[in-house]
């Protein structure tokens, strides 16, 4: 897989480098400009200093320039040169030269004969006196004897002392040269002066050899390679005695124009400590000599200043860049914030718009819901009214149904009452008091029974609410009493197994439910050979279940889903209205209970009324037969 760099990360890598670039560029430009300005300043100062020093050298030399020629005026010297063996004359001249030398402050003053031999000298008393020495090999002698001004810097062949030789050919009135006068001048005072003034300078002669230097290490070093011929010539003249004249090696040399040079000397030179220092080198040709005065100004300070300026410029540039970056970042942040605010405002506007739309929708939905609620309430009201109507209708139906039976039921006792009362009257007339009283008892019982029947009916028809309490066994008793005529007809075996409990339902409503259930059970078992009814009650958790079971044919499967539907009946003709179960279920629900049907495997149907438990139960009170 080829290595790829994402443009973004490349930019991230390059960015710091790109930012560093102007910093370095600034620093570099500042360094170059500052260095150039520093060099220019140094060059200007150096030029003045060079001029001053050159004049100082020239004046040092010019102090003695006439001295040799003055000796031409001295007769004693001329006499000595004409008669070299005159020892007295020689002593006088020696003394004269000695005095001259001491007063002039030169190194030595001496006179050579035409052959180049020293005939008189200021140091005639010194053990290493020049006296008698043959100096004809010295160039200054050769120049002077030829009538030219002898100028020569060299190291003394006797004492090895460096000095500047000024020679003059002593000539008589006819121009005939009869000897040479020489003054050896000390120039090392210049070096001392340079050292005191902390000036780095040197003087190089016509051979390119450094003859005077503020730095002793540079002394008698050649600035350029010396050819073999030159070396031989120098050896012959013993100008530099036996010095090796090593070449002063430069590590670097750059021309800066206008006679300016930047030089760096090899280690150890000129100053071991500052061997790595670059110098600004300025040279000037001295008057009256073939010498060059060179001034060396260290560039260390200039460089240091340039470096400081460069660092300052780089820092300023970096600061500027940082400020620019900060400004840019701030601008970006502000732009981003403005964008974000704008986006937020836009989103807000959109949101408000949506909210408006949604609010309108919600309002419409709300209105719809309100309308629906109103409709539902209306429907509920209608339903409740229908339910009430149903209850009333159910009651009326039951009452209607019962009234027939009731009439039959009451008619029978009434007929019996009529017969019994007539018989009682007759028995009383006959004086059969016992029989008459027995008849009256029967009459009383029959009246009680009729009273009970009508009482139940009244209670059934009375308006009720859902908050009453019912005694289960009373309700069962009342129901059975109300259904007495039909029980008499069907004569089922009734098994009773329930508790004496109080249930949270109106007494009449419970009786109404039980009358419906038992009446249906009686209808179901009417055709059975051995009709049976089970009336049971069981505690089931927090509820109490009352079951009315029969051994009739049961509910046919196709009818099972419709039992609790209004007006559903399987009974022929006027026998059924299809109200009983619907009404009973509705009454049970109103009392927070349920009415369900089960189909026992052994046959028949079992209707179970479940109601919440209200009071403690006791042991079963009865078992019907
Ligand atoms: P109705 O008695 O006037 O028909 P109900 O609502 O009381 O109305 O009863 C509806 C129907 O439920 C009855 O027609 C009958 O088919 C069926 N049913 C009710 N109780 C029993 C039962 N114990 N055994 C068999 N079928 C029953």
From TrEMBL:
Coiled coil: 341-389
Catalytic class of the enzyme: transferase
Reactions catalysed, as given in the entry: ATP + protein L-histidine = ADP + protein N-phospho-L-histidine
Top-level taxon in the UniProt lineage: Bacteria
Membrane topology: Multi-pass membrane protein
TM annotation in the entry: 306-327
GO molecular function list: ATP binding; phosphorelay sensor kinase activity
Matches recorded under SMART domains: HATPase_c, HisKA
One GO cellular component term noted in the UniProt record for this chain: plasma membrane
Pfam families with a match to the protein in the record: dCache_1, HATPase_c
Enzyme Commission no: 2.7.13.3
Compartments reported by the entry: Cell inner membrane
Keywords (A to Z) from UniProt: ATP-binding, Cell inner membrane, Cell membrane, Coiled coil, Kinase, Membrane, Nucleotide-binding, Phosphoprotein, Transferase, Transmembrane, Transmembrane helix, Two-component regulatory system
PROSITE patterns for this protein: HIS_KIN
All copies of domain Histidine kinase, residue ranges: 405-615
Signal peptide per UniProt: none
InterPro entries documented for this protein: dCache_1 (IPR033479), HATPase_C_sf (IPR036890), HATPase_dom (IPR003594), His_kinase_dom (IPR005467), HisK_dim/P_dom (IPR003661), HisK_dim/P_sf (IPR036097), Sensor-like_sf (IPR029151), Sig_transdc_His_kin-like_C (IPR004358)
Protein name in the entry: C4-dicarboxylate transport sensor protein DctB
Source organism: Stutzerimonas marianensis
